[in-house]
Amino acid sequence: MKGYREAYKKAFPYTIPVLTGYIFIGVAFGVMFAEKGYSFLWAALMSILVYAGSGQYLAVNFFVPGISIFQVVFMTLMVNIRHVFYGISLLERFNGMGKKKWYMIFSLTDETYSLLCTTKIPEGIDEGKFLFAIASLDQVYWVAGSIIGAVAGSVLPFNSEGIDFAMTALFVVIFIEQWLDKKNRIPEIIGVAAAFIGLQIFGASRFVLPSMLLIVMILFVSKKQLQKEVNLSCQ
Asked: Alpha carbon of 79 to those of 29, 52, 97, 119: distances in Å?
């Protein structure tokens, strides 16, 4: 554990924005999960072993009759396909982290990715330990929020109508921050344009999957150029 205490001490201030966000959206997930009649222990286990953020919000709706395994797999893949591009841009950094790279790959959420790309390694701190500290702290925040929400949802009366918008609101904030921060806005434009086209063709209740397929197709076609831009942002 040599060096980890200092790494966590240095990493914590950078993760405070994630702490404030993950606690609240984790609570929202926990409340939704408890409404389905599941124990807070299952919410905690899901946040520890799955840790998919929007994928977990989506999974809450899978616990109803009539949902096929194909729909579960396909929707989860589409919602989290962006992580493929995150991982590609960080392969070299993770390869130098030994066994910790497997956890780093698993824990690569949107907010963690943003911190890993933008946070400067403090002087005198091992890079691998610092990055691991950021990733593990972020997951602790998410797990804690999930437990708090699930416990509260089990013992207190809640009207959870609209609470699932918490994750949507978080992505809106991330989108705005990325738009204001980056000079290359092509990925954002692709996402907005594809969603608009899907909405016009398929309607509000069916546009998500076609829009995401269109986004993925465009991103794969232009992946070399986009990967180059992402690598530059992470250097």
From this structure: 16, 9, 28, 26
Task: Calculate mean pLDDT across residues 146-161.
Answer: 83
pLDDT for the residue 232: 54
Domain ranges (residues) in the chain: 4-165, 182-235
Q: Nearest 5°: phi and psi at 66?
A: 95, -5
Q: How confident is the model at residue 235 (pLDDT cuts 50, 70, 90)?
A: low
CA–chain centroid gap for 140, Å, is: 14
Q: How far apart are CA 213 and CA 190, in angstroms?
A: 12
For 28-40, what is each residue's pLDDT tens digit?
A: 889 888 888 888 9
DSSP 222: T
Residue appearing with tokens 């040599």: 2
- State the chain's mean pLDDT as an integer: 83
